[in-house]
Design brief:
The chain is an alpha+beta fold and 712 residues long. It folds into three domains: 107 residues, Golgi alpha-mannosidase II (Immunoglobulin-like, Sandwich), CATH 2.60.40.1180; 253 residues, alpha-galactosidase from lactobacil brevis (Beta-galactosidase, Chain A, domain 5); 323 residues, TIM Barrel (Alpha-Beta Barrel), CATH 3.20.20.70. Helices cover 22% and strands 28% of the residues. The chain has 14 helices and 38 strands. Helix 8 runs parallel beside helix 10.
């Protein structure tokens, strides 16, 4: 492959996305915007009359709503007792709480907010508690987010930026941009009760020079509506898709967690502030250290332990920098694995000595073990199905439930593909045989937590892979009484978080791989606890992986996909799967030369892994076409370095592309290096941002990585 970086660009760059020379750190203006909003909403401090600014939330009125006893909250709250409190949670966070009490029925509404001192961000959750001696009147349509954003005084309408969720297709995480013209109403919610199935629960309301990032923390069926009447402001509403319930005496419920992050400038700046915020405040910390995703390899759980040991030796003996070994489904019960969830004894014929022989060999070589479980889906006829005898432990579908394929895993495999028959069979089997473990039943959750914690100790598990190949929504709703709609979902989600948090308390070094038929449970609450190491169940080729990365990088920093076989000549496939961590396959050849190739390719990735934790800029338009190029940039402005990845796809006719970079210092000279060719070249930040970086790839398909750093 012949690749060169042009030292001077004579031809015009045909990629002309806007560039920026501003480092992505919160500005005083952004911090001031967040402070004013928090003071008005949480502290009740009157704000001075300010000129209207596009995208600024209006200061008047509450930022949430609900209906109680058939009356809207806006009519009642003025008559309820209001109390406020605040306390510092360390140097960078302040908890701000206000409480409304209805003296007539004993309902207490408590809003707990977190104001961040290092980001223009505020989070909050509502809690409703019945302090009375009888059931409350009906509480419904609870929206922890209900506010308006100014949209006037600008020539074009605001734009709503968001991404599709996991669809098991090339469309996973595809960017969506929608103009919020007068009369527009956009209603979004995930499919089947998994929070990032079909739609990712992060949004950017872009008013041109100002805007707001919104995030939802709810690993269930949230909903969000963006609407605009006439030429008025944009109204944003979000919460659970369905709440219609009475609270019993002493009972308390919570809502989804909401995030508002204020930005000024360009919309990509807002997204990069979100990335930085999530890495700073919503990042797993096993053993108290911020998680850096691993380089991992592994195999199928239905493979004998002796074969796993051979693979582990292939990693350990040449000291390949692979730190995590993954064992997937198939190690328990019997075949087929998807009909044996609930039969959890280790298959003795495959693992006669259990898992300790594997985890011990990994730990002795300073490696770790990841093991797959799917405990919350229980198949009828298995040992755990007997727990139906224990009231409330298992949930089931009701008569008349829509066909499984309409509300469960949406395997978007084209008809005619040989895998279609397999997945169709699998879907119908799961539909017929599934029960759902009820995480909202305290005794059931304690049993599951204790059982899993014991297996973590017994097996020597370092990463717990929680899969969830079931759409829970219909199970939840079938369990609800007419006057308790939403309660099963609420208790389930609370129980899920409680189990994960208890596991961390018992096993401080534990990390969780968050899988749900791929990345279908990615949200503000999960990203701080767990990471999607398998972001899609689509058996993706390189173009699919590029498209998935292009979209998801913008919103969530930590995620992974399959990188490819570690073999020279496979760089296009491997680089298409590089993210904040890398999943790899060992080459089929087991010899010194193949080991050296694998070592070189991993070390090359290790050299650039840090950039995936920086600011992200798309450099080309999003495209699924095999005839197009795709490119992006990661920038570490505090360190004065970054990288560009560019992909020439199999049918791309042009040998070159040109991209204008972002975030650089105009007057600074940068040294650029192509990882595949010796030597270096130099360009100023102004040249790279205004004229552009030209990359030539002779072969197709092909991939190039160009690093840059300030010249010393």
């Amino acid at each position: 492959m012949k690749i060169r970086i042009a030292t001077m660009v004579l031809a015009a760059c045909w990629i002309s996305l806007p560039s920026s020379a501003v480092a992505v750190v919160p500005t005083p203006g952004e911090m001031g915007e967040a402070r004013r909003w928090t003071a008005a909403k949480f502290e009740g401090v009157p704000q001075p009359s300010l000129p209207e600014t596009n995208g600024r939330p209006t200061d008047a009125g509450p930022f949430f709503s609900f209906t109680y006893a058939n009356r809207p909250s806006t009519e009642m709250l003025a008559t309820w007792k209001l109390e406020r409190a605040s306390r510092k949670l360390g140097e960078r966070r302040t908890e701000r709480t206000f409480t409304y009490t209805d003296s007539k029925t004993g309902l207490v509404l408590r809003c707990v907010g977190i104001e961040y001192g290092d980001f223009p961000a505020v989070e909050w959750t509502l809690y409703f508690r019945n302090t009375g001696h009888q059931a409350t009147p009906m509480l419904e349509n609870v929206l922890p987010l209900d506010m308006s954003l100014s949209a006037s005084n600008r020539p074009s309408p605001p734009v709503l930026h968001y991404a599709k969720g996991a669809l098991c297709s090339i469309d996973d995480y595809a960017p969506v941009d929608m103009a919020l013209k007068p009369g527009t109403r956009v209603h979004l919610q995930p499919g089947g009760g998994r929070s990032s199935s079909e739609v990712l629960p992060f949004f950017n309301v872009d008013a041109g020079e100002t805007g707001m990032i919104l995030g939802i923390g709810w690993t269930g069926q949230w909903a969000a509506t963006f609407s605009r009447d006439a030429d008025g402001p944009v109204r944003v509403q979000s919460g659970m898709a369905l709440t219609h319930l009475k609270l019993r005496p002493g009972e308390e419920i919570r809502t989804p967690r909401m995030l508002a992050l204020f930005w000024r400038g360009q919309s990509e700046r807002g997204n990069n502030l979100l990335r930085r915020f999530l890495l700073t405040h919503h990042r797993p910390h096993p053993n108290g250290k911020p998680l850096v995703l691993p380089v991992l390899a592994g195999g199928w759980g239905g493979t004998a332990a002796a074969e796993h040991l051979k693979t582990i030796r292939r990693i350990v003996q040449p000291n390949l920098p692979i730190e995590l070994y993954w064992i997937d489904a198939g190690w328990f019960g019997g075949e087929p694995w998807w009909k044996n969830n609930g039969n959890w004894p280790v298959r003795h014929e495959l693992y006669p000595q259990g898992f300790r022989v594997l985890s011990d060999s990994l730990h002795q070589a300073a490696r770790r073990l990841l093991l797959w479980f799917e405990l919350q889906r229980v198949c009828r006829g298995t040992a755990w199905a007997k727990f139906q005898d224990r009231p409330g432990w298992l949930l089931e579908l009701g008569p008349g439930t829509p066909e499984y394929k309409q509300h469960n895993m949406d395997w978007k495999i084209p008809h005619g593909d040989p895998r279609w028959v397999l997945w169709e069979s699998r879907r119908s089997q799961i539909a017929e045989d599934d029960l759902l473990w009820n995480m909202g039943e305290p005794s059931a959750r304690r049993f599951l937590t204790d059982w899993l914690s014991a297996r973590i100790d017994e097996f020597g598990v370092d990463w717990y892979r929680e899969d969830f190949n079931i759409a829970p929504l219909e199970f939840w709703r079938h369990a609800d009484a007419a006057d308790r709609q939403g309660i099963t979902e609420i208790r389930y989600i609370e129980g899920l978080y409680a189990m994960w948090d208890e596991l961390f308390a018992r096993h401080p070094g534990l990390a969780i791989d968050n899988c749900a038929s791929g990345g279908r449970r990615i949200d503000l609450e999960t990203v701080g606890r767990a990471t999607a190491l398998w972001r899609t169940d689509w058996p993706a080729d390189a173009i699919h992986k590029q498209c998935h990365s292009f979209g998801l990088f913008r919103w969530v920093p930590l995620h992974m996909t399959l990188g490819g076989v570690l073999k020279k000549g496979n760089e296009y496939e491997i680089r298409s799967g590089m993210t904040a961590g890398m999943s790899v396959e060992l080459p089929p050849e087991d010899n010194a030369d193949s080991a050296r190739q694998a070592q070189t390719l991993i070390e090359q990735y290790r050299g650039i892994q840090k950039f995936y934790y920086g600011d992200y800029y798309p450099l080309t338009p999003y495209s699924q076409r095999a005839a197009d190029w795709m490119a992006w940039q990661f920038d570490l402005p505090e360190r004065g370095e970054g990288m560009v990845q560019a992909f020439r796809r199999p049918q791309a006719p042009s040998e070159s592309t040109c991209a204008k970079l972002h975030g650089l210092e105009p007057g600074t000279v940068y040294t650029l290096k192509n990882l595949d060719v010796p030597g270096a070249t130099e360009m100023t930040g102004r040249q790279l941002m205004d004229v552009g970086l030209s990359v030539v790839i002779k072969n197709r398909p092909g991939a190039v990585i160009v690093t840059y750093e300030k010249k010393s």
